[in-house]
Q: What sequence folds into this?
């Protein structure tokens, strides 16, 4: 009996010591050796081969033939190791998928940055070898954070892991957490290999209301008959415009060799899947590396399309997109230096070659671009169309400005349209956009000195040479006629239009200045002192002064002080831009874009050519402003956080209007999974004179409740109430009968509210959807909404809903689809003509609210290898 017990004990211990069968790697014969039937073994094998690897032993219960008793019987005999069919880089992509997805949603001014940051997510850089600028260019990393890392390295310390990084003196928790996915420390986590990325995007959505109004504006004919074909919208049948289209391909070897192309068109432009439309094609090739020659040298070389950004964006930042209150900090960063450009920017794209060399104490950059640009051209001959004959005695066009057209029509088509419009007009079209009419050559450079960590001074500039055109702005007593069709509307040429009158001129009123170039020179600086950084930039546009003399030409200045603590930051920014500082490549901080409130803004009905409105609608430059901006964020405790809160006090240079804007954002989080935010915004224009016609007050209160559910699901509800106050407006408040009182009796007040529900649900690790539902009542107030990283402006009253579906349909293939529907009413209008007492009684035309339907669709397919 004792012998039998001994044998049983030995057998039990042998079972424990025996090597367990791994369910994710075992052969079928190994599974058959388990105390189960052959059919059950086959079911386990086929489940692993054709459905999924096992994450845990309990996944066996997903197989119908495996009951609980069987699971308990084989549990001591089997094990599960994590197994995947993904290679090293694909595993990293899975780990940081949510970050890559978030970058892929960025558009506009951040679009080109997303490619760069995604590359560094997949192939991180060695933090112990990165330059100060490289660290600073990472998302949401401040100059104080970058200097803290560099000071630690300068002391001879090596950062070995994330825990070591967090212990860096002066590095904020926020900066460290944003750096962690973009860097490695000792060993290269992924081998140098080829990476490829292809993106296909098709988007079909309506023009926004301002753009649609511009295109639909009818050229009134001599007989005062209205014909929809006498508008761009009708002539080009823009109701059936082709959707916007983009295809982009990138390839690189590690972080050293990179290349790519993008082929895109805006809505209404002809889409081509091949390369027949070479005008819309952007491409580049680049090399980034380092070599030892009298020290370490970091070099970047580019050919094709590239992006150049330095300082505060005063001298050079070439993008087509405008971003209000762009501080260069946090979520409105600039990637400094020269970088690839596969964004959809066309007008201000640079095409040629560029080179930068960076050493420990100095750096040098050079770029050359040769490209054609769209521009607004004068009708010199005052005939039916603007064509190649509209040149002066020197064989040059007279142009007003660069222009980024919402839809860039071909020049032949534009000439035919203008000839058709002019047949019925009393005067010819005086100004019109032309595609690729301006020959532009740019030579630019920069030299930087960095005597100590976090401190630099840089000198940069460029000269744009125009071989076939002069920039012309006619004298004040005649310029209005080029913009306004009917002389009865000349009174609309108000003081705000001084911004038009001060556009750059290479040929003055008396033909005294005949330059064939535009030149901008500047100086930027920055230093870090403790937990505070100081930076700024000064630039001058050469007009009639000496190039190297400071203060004798139109200038612009931005200075910033930024103080950072672990749970608090405070920023002060000052800017001062001269009215005649017209640098088309400037993208500095401002509240409004250039030409705001001029005749071009919201006055399409009185322009000689309605599509001059694109000069404002797509303006990317800052308007001439002078003022102070203050911003802060303070995490008070675990429950209360004062999110980004700012105060801006500024003067608009064009008419001297003083304005003030405040926005506060307080968040209360009683538990981690729930938060409530209260936002308040207040803006007053012309606060120094409430009797002025341009005064207005806007206040907005929002309550936002957010609940973070399981599996990264999220539910958010927002309610917003807006109130706008304006001064007395006689045309709105007076008796409409002619000849009666003309004294305004009351002030105008507009109110509106908006309700939004936003829900995100992850069905599994690969499939998720996000949906939103909104209701609003405008009463004259403009409402806006963010739809999956896209901003939308709404009409008078209505509702809308949208759905975004995102699916990882294969290891390297991602699909995103968006559907949007919007139902709203337009403004109710009463058109009166009571200025003439001799008119009959029925002088009113009443236009009811018009119900409108608006649908949008977006399809995006991305392949990453």
A:
């Amino acid at each position: 009996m004792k012998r039998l017990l001994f044998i049983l004990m030995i057998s039990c211990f042998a079972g424990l010591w025996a090597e367990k069968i791994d369910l994710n790697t075992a052969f079928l014969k190994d599974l058959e050796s388990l105390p189960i039937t052959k059919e059950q073994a086959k079911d386990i094998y086929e489940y692993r081969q054709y459905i999924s690897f096992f994450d845990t032993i309990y996944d066996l219960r997903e197989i119908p033939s495996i009951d609980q008793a069987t699971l308990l019987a084989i549990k001591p005999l089997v094990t599960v190791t994590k197994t995947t069919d993904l290679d090293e880089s694909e595993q990293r992509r899975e780990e940081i998928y949510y970050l890559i997805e978030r970058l892929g949603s960025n558009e506009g001014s951040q679009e080109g940055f997303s490619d760069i940051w995604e590359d560094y997510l997949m192939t991180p850089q060695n933090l112990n070898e990165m330059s100060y600028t490289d660290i600073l260019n990472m998302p949401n990393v401040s100059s104080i954070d970058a200097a803290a890392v560099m000071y630690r390295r300068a002391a001879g310390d090596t950062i070995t892991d994330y825990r070591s990084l967090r212990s860096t003196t002066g590095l904020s928790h926020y900066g460290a957490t944003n750096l962690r996915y973009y860097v490695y420390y000792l060993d290269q986590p992924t081998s140098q290999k080829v990476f490829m990325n292809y993106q296909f995007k098709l988007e079909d959505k309506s023009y926004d209301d301002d753009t649609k109004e511009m295109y639909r504006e009818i050229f009134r004919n001599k007989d005062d008959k209205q014909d929809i074909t006498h508008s761009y919208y009708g002539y080009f049948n823009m109701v059936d415009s082709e959707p916007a289209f983009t295809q982009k391909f990138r390839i690189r070897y590690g972080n050293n060799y990179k290349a790519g192309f993008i082929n895109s068109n805006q809505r209404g432009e002809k889409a081509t899947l091949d390369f027949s439309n070479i005008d819309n094609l952007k491409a580049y090739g680049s090399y980034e590396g380092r070599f030892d020659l009298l020290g370490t040298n970091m070099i970047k070389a580019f050919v094709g399309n590239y992006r150049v950004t330095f300082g505060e964006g005063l001298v050079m930042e070439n993008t087509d997109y405008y971003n209000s209150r762009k501080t260069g900090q946090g979520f409105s960063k600039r990637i400094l230096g020269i970088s690839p450009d596969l964004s959809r920017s066309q007008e201000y794209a640079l095409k040629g070659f560029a080179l930068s060399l960076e050493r420990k104490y100095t750096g040098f950059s050079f770029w050359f671009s040769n490209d054609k640009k769209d521009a607004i051209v004068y009708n010199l001959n005052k005939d039916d169309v603007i064509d190649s004959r509209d040149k002066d005695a020197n064989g040059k066009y007279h142009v007003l400005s660069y222009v980024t057209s919402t839809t860039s029509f071909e020049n032949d088509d534009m000439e035919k349209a203008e000839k058709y419009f002019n047949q019925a007009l009393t005067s010819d079209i005086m100004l019109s956009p032309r595609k690729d009419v301006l020959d532009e050559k740019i030579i630019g450079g920069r030299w930087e000195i960095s005597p100590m960590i976090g401190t630099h001074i840089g000198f940069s500039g460029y000269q744009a040479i125009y071989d076939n055109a002069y920039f012309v702005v006619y004298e004040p007593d005649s310029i209005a006629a080029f913009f306004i069709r009917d002389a009865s509307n000349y009174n609309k040429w108000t003081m705000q239009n001084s911004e038009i009158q001060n556009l750059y001129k290479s040929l003055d009123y008396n033909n005294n200045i005949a330059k064939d170039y535009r030149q901008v020179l500047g100086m930027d600086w920055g230093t870090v002192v403790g937990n505070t950084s100081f930076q700024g930039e000064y630039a001058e546009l050469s007009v009639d002064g000496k190039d190297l003399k400071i203060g004798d030409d139109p200038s612009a200045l931005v200075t910033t002080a930024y103080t950072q603590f672990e749970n608090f930051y405070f920023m002060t920014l000052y800017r001062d831009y001269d009215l005649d500082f017209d640098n088309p490549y400037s993208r500095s901080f401002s509240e409004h874009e250039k030409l705001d409130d001029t005749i071009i803004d919201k006055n399409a009905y009185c322009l000689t050519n309605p599509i001059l409105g694109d000069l404002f609608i797509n303006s990317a430059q800052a308007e001439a402003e002078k003022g102070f901006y203050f911003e802060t964020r303070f995490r008070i405790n675990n429950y209360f956080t004062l999110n980004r809160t700012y105060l801006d006090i500024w003067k608009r240079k064009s008419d001297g209007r003083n304005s003030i804007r405040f926005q506060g954002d307080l968040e209360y989080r009683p538990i981690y999974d729930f938060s409530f935010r209260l936002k308040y915004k207040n803006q007053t224009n012309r606060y120094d004179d409430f009797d002025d016609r341009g005064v207005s007050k806007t206040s907005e209160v929002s309550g936002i409740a957010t609940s973070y559910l399981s599996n990264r699901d999220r539910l958010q509800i927002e309610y917003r109430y807006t109130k706008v106050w304006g001064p007395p407006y006689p045309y709105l408040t007076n008796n409409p009968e002619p000849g009666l009182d003309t004294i305004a009796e009351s002030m105008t007040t507009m109110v509106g509210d908006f309700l939004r529900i936003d829900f995100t649900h992850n069905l599994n690790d690969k499939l998720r959807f996000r949906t939103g539902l909104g209701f609003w009542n405008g009463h004259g107030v403009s409402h806006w909404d963010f739809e999956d990283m896209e901003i939308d402006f709404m009409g008078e009253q209505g509702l809308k809903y949208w759905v975004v579906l995102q699916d990882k349909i294969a290891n390297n293939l991602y699909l995103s689809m968006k559907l949007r529907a919007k139902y709203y009413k337009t403004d109710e209008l009463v058109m009166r003509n009571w200025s003439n007492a001799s008119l009959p009684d029925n002088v009113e035309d009443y236009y009811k609210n018009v119900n409108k339907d608006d649908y949008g669709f977006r399809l995006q397919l991305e392949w990453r290898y």
Confidence is low (pLDDT under 50) at residues 1-17, 741-746, 829-846. The chain is about 15% helix and 40% strand. Residues 659 and 687 are 6 Å apart (CA to CA). The first helix runs from residue 2 to 17.
